[in-house]
Amino acid sequence: MILMIISSGIMLALGAAHLLFTFHGPKLTPRDPALQTSMQQVSPVITSQTTMWNAWLGFNASHSMGAILFGLIYGFLAIQHGSLLFQSAFLLSAGLAMLGGYLALGKLYWFRVPFTGITVALVCYIASVALSLR
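RESULT FIELD:
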């Protein structure tokens, strides 16, 4: 159970940090200020009702919220309803798929810090499930 809580806590922390960086500070802004200006003026092909910059902010925020939700739900289940969590093939499979998806995205598109954090979260998750099967 403690490994599941650690896994959940890592994802919660990564999501919260990402949400903070989305709306505060320069960490998720382009190094080239002209790119941000262009993103604020150009709409995506799908609609003219937003700009690429607003879409960028929204995608980053919703991505953060997904990691936060994972951390909160799986942490809560591990603490309050461990037997439900560890006896549910659906919940365990969904969590594994989510972390596996984040790991693949991290490897393909992100950088070392989130990839490493997600790797540790996934290892803790798998170890927690394996220990529950004993």
